UniProtKB/TrEMBL annotation:
GO MF terms, alphabetically ordered: alpha-(1->3)-fucosyltransferase activity
Organism: Adineta steineri
Topological category with respect to the lipid bilayer: Single-pass type II membrane protein
Residue intervals passing through the bilayer: 12-31
Name this polypeptide is given: Fucosyltransferase
InterPro entries for the chain: Glyco_tran_10_C, Glyco_tran_10_N, Glyco_trans_10, GT10-like_C_sf
Length: 523
């Protein structure tokens, strides 16, 4: 009898605990989704005009960036650009030449624009730029946008992880190591066809000597200075272009001259894989993949990060809880492979999981997310293993065992460390942030709209184009002839129905199942 009561009591305690946990999870999730900030109310204060002789281009960041407010106190322009452009407070968006909206904290936004296109029609000359670093799948979910079509008539420019954006965000990029370039030119006596851009500022600057317009004069001196600075910084980062792989022939040729890679050997029979993960319910279903991978013989996946702390506290070193890079580096020395699994499977959605954590040069990243062709287009050549190359998880496991046993096969995936440097400075638009881009485009449009077609005006228009040409920034939606942009249909450009091929967000039941069965099995 006592046993029976005890049993029932334990059982009830467990189910009570389970229900409570579920409830708390649900509430905290719900709260995080619906925590709606107050929209910015337009500020109708008349701004002091500032310097009447030089009207700066003004930019607002209408929403915060990951919770951090951007306003007139933000220090976002360098010393050159501070003299020709300014950041306003978000409340002053009516007066800005251009506005940035980050989709991540979009909740502030709809109340302003929702279905009120009359505002947009009234302020047509404003340039609106949409900034997104999440996958279409997740940004749709977090902004709870059924009506994303409402935004279609709103934005001129985009900055996202897609290379088709006006400003392509890529956390890092790669360049050929300077010592490799030296090898190619000196030892191998090959001329290589990597030509750095190097256009000097022409003598035409004289045409501003007698210029009476303070606007044109100031702009000329600042743009020239900025052009020089950017050119120097670009040549320093990418003396032989960035993100261009060496040809296979050349890599073959270089082989005898390269320092050998000594891989760390752990165990020949057990494949050691690390996984840092913080989002426990993904669209991509990566947790199920890991669960299956782990059940393969001789495969060991150690899990670090937020999800692991639910069940397993002692396993994760304290400093690794948040997956800080330094801890990761140290930790990765104990592994031969690393899972860089994205939370969504979407077009070109390749994030810091690959760039910051994955390609460390210590363990080989195994990637899941964007398609193979997209990794080929964006990632460092031969630096990763794509799960789509294997029809079944068994085949992947088999391949991992093969690489684990054969060092010459294993180090093929680390060969890039001999050839390339990786860094934020080498990414395709490293020197083109949203703010300075809008600054330049604002002046471009203003110059373009001028009535007199003077030499000076032509010179300045050309100079701005050259600034973007330095690194071949494409700005596909900006038309340099008309100084206008075409409309971005966000519902087509950034739409999970078009760009993604994974599952919808797991339902409440599915998440409960994951939480109690899948994740508990993983630890
Ligand atoms: C839409 O915006 C205009 C001004 O931009 C305003 O006059 C009008 O009241 C707004 N309409 C709605 C429905 O909010
Ligand atoms: C490299 O090539 C140049 C001409 O192409 C030749 O004069 C020179 O001797 C070569 N040097 C070596 C080390 O082969
Ligand atoms: C500037 O003006 C001076 C005197 O008016 C003239 O001699 C000179 O040629 C002008 N320079 C240019 C570059 O137009
Ligand atoms: C490892 O792979 C290479 C081919 O890259 C092969 O020649 C060699 O025999 C393999 N070694 C072992 C121990 O299987
Ligand atoms: C930006 O987009 C708006 C809205 O579609 C459009 O009317 C306007 O011409 C564009 N602005 C510029 C400066 O190109």
């Amino acid at each position: 009898m006592i046993m029976y009561i005890l049993k029932r009591w334990t059982c009830r305690k467990i189910s009570l605990f389970a229900i409570l946990t579920l409830f708390i999870c649900y509430i905290s999730y719900y709260y995080s989704i619906t925590k709606v900030n107050q929209p910015y109310i337009p500020n109708i204060r008349i701004r002091s005009i500032g310097n009447i002789l030089f009207k700066k281009i003004s930019v607002v960041h209408y929403t915060t960036t990951f919770g951090k407010r951007t306003d007139s106190h933000s220090d976002l322009f360098n010393t050159n650009l501070k003299q020709i452009c300014e950041i306003l407070d978000p409340e002053e968006y009516l007066y800005a030449d251009s506005a940035i909206v980050s989709l991540v904290d979009f909740v502030r936004f709809p109340s302003l624009v929702n279905k009120n296109i009359s505002y947009r029609n009234k302020y047509q000359s404003q340039l609106w730029l949409l900034h997104i670093e999440e996958s279409p799948r997740n940004s749709y979910r977090t902004v709870q946008m059924n009506n994303i079509i409402d935004l279609d008539d709103w934005f001129n420019l985009t900055t996202t992880l897609r290379p088709e954006s006006d400003l392509h965000i890529q956390y890092k990029g790669y360049r050929i190591k300077p010592e490799i370039i030296n090898l190619i030119t000196n030892k191998l006596n090959l001329t290589h066809n990597y030509h750095p851009t190097n256009s000097k500022i022409s003598k035409e600057i004289n045409i501003f000597k007698n210029e009476s317009s303070i606007y044109l004069k100031t702009l000329a001196s600042i743009l020239n200075k900025e052009f020089n600075d950017r050119q120097n910084s670009y040549l320093k980062a990418c003396p032989f272009t960035c993100n261009q792989p060496l040809s296979n022939d050349l890599v073959q040729f270089l082989q005898p001259y390269l320092k050998p890679i000594i891989p760390h050997i752990l165990s020949r029979d057990i494949v050691h894989i690390a996984w840092f993960v913080s989002n426990c319910d993904s669209h991509s279903g990566r947790e199920e993949y890991v669960s299956k991978l782990r059940s393969q013989p001789g495969i060991r996946v150690d899990i670090y990060g937020e999800c692991s702390s639910i069940f397993n506290k002692h396993f994760v070193p304290i400093q690794c809880r948040k997956g800080t890079p330094k801890c990761m580096e140290q930790t990765l020395s104990n592994y031969r492979f690393y899972l860089a699994f994205e939370n969504s499977k979407c077009d070109t959605y390749i994030t810091e999981k690959y760039w910051m954590q994955g390609v460390s040069g210590r363990a080989i990243p195994i990637v899941l997310g964007a398609k193979r062709e997209q990794y080929q287009r964006i990632a460092v050549p031969n630096s990763y293993i794509h799960v789509d190359n294997y029809q079944t998880i068994e085949q992947l496991a088999h391949e991992l065992h093969r690489l684990n046993k054969n060092d010459s096969e294993y180090i093929k995936y680390l060969q890039w460390t001999q050839l390339y440097d990786l860094g934020g400075d080498y990414s395709p638009t490293a020197r083109y942030d949203m703010y300075s881009t809008l600054c330049f485009l604002g002046h471009y449009q203003r110059l373009h709209a001028m009535q007199e077609y003077t030499k000076q005006r032509t010179y300045l228009l050309k100079r701005i184009r050259q600034i973007f040409d330095l690194e071949n920034v494409r700005l596909p939606n900006f038309n340099w002839e008309t100084a206008r942009t075409k409309l971005i249909k966000i519902s087509e450009f950034h739409n999970p129905k078009v760009n993604c091929w994974d599952n919808d967000y797991p339902t409440f039941l599915k998440r409960a199942y994951n939480f109690f069965f899948l994740w508990s099995k993983l630890f």
